[in-house]
Design brief:
This protein is α/β, with parallel strands linked by helices. The chain is 45% helix and 19% strand. Strand 1, helix 1 and strand 2 form a beta-alpha-beta unit.
Amino acid sequence: MTRPRLVGLSANVQRPSKTRTLVDAVLREAGARAPLDVRLLDFVDAGTGLGAAWTRDQLPASSRSVLAAIEEADGLVVGSPVYKGAYTGLFKHLFDLVDPGALAGKPVAIVATGGGARHALVVEHAFRPLFGFFGALQIPTAVYASDPDFSDGVLTEAGVRTRAAEAGGQLAALLVHRSASAAPLALAAAE
């Protein structure tokens, strides 16, 4: 049986990044609970050509690779810094290029980072409608962290760390369940 592929995507454009740190925290928690093939990507991996492409066929190879990883994953952890009350425009642009059926039923964990607590509802008011459009299976626990939750780039706030652990556990459980459910079907098809 192949291990489920879990891809983390952070909409940061520089490293290090608080958003990448938060996405990685959820990925690590999921990976600690189940045998998963985990991969962490960010917009640095997509390259600067992502913003210049109006259509999928205009994407440079590095951006196509990130898009393919998203579409081929069994589950996702997606995160963005908050900019003016929502995810970044480049984050939305990337998901505008995702095939509308590619995320249907796919487990997704949502994380976001911002300057303060006033942006905390962005996960409910911006992210959930986007992934609802795709028909993604959004896990119940979303994670938001603000600047005071980090110290020297490390996630230190206990409540946020607990939520990251809950999100990782929920995601791992869904991926394991889906993988186990699919195994008998694959075996029957091979016979």
